[in-house]
Amino acid sequence: xxxxxxxxxxxxxxxxxxxxxxxxxxxxxxxxxxxxxxxxxxxxxxxxxxxxxxxxxxxxxxxxxxxxxxxxxxxxxxxxxxxxxxxxxxxxxxxxxxxxxxxxxxxxxxxxxxxxxxxxxxxxxxxxxxxxxxxxxxxxxxxxxxxxxxxxxxxxxxxxxxxxxxxxxxxxxxxxxxxxxxxxxxxxxxxxxxxxxxxxxxxxxxxxxxxxxxxxxxxxxxxxxxxxxxxxxxxxxxxxxxxxxxxxx
Length: 249
Description:
By secondary structure, the chain is an alpha/beta fold. 33% of the residues lie in helices and 33% in strands. The protein has helices at 13-26, 38-48, 64-74, 90-95, 108-130, 186-192, 238-248, and strands at 4-9, 29-35, 52-55, 79-84, 100-103, 143-148, 151-156, 160-166, 169-174, 178-182, 198-202, 205-208, 212-217, 222-227, 233-237. The strands form four sheets. It has a five-stranded parallel β-sheet with strand order 2-1-3-4-5, with helices on both faces. Strand 4 (79-84), helix 4 and strand 5 form a beta-alpha-beta unit. The longest helix has 23 residues, at 108-130. The radius of gyration is 19 Å and the shape is globular. Residues 133-141 have low confidence and may be disordered.
């Protein structure tokens, strides 16, 4: 696995220095930028597409939580770790699926534990991508008319693996490495799909339950869903995980 591309965002230069030292001590991370305000963070995120962002909550111009919402829409798989002196923002941070929330002043051991968990999650994701099982096409059960910039495509619903928000658009991934970008929202597609087969597992994902391979913990109140036939995975909230357990039970 390549070094983990990481961004740091904090208007406190001393905190940025501390986080750099934590990354160096942990090892396996590649710092691709530092931001002192929210606008700079969003520009760096769009440019570098990091796997990990370490950010404060209270930042000039755009708050950390507001930045998190935008970054989630651009890349829902990016890992977001908040580091702040204000515990009253913890609920807001986890509402945007933060991986962890470090309260300043935190001990070095606490930050290193979080970075170790980040590496474990990304290593597991990378290993799963290397051993992806071959795609298996299912018999057609229904068809989905899909609008996009080049016209219209017709997909077999059974062949859809997952649907996600990506680069502020909606993208459908199908067996056989198919990828379709559509103007339809996740909500619109959810309403047109069979609710017994598809689950809106997260604000940024819809998954095909028949392709679920495994589920593993990811941060607090969130899990990672591995799907057969693709290197991609999805996030599922604790609430939706319990709903899926009932369906499979």
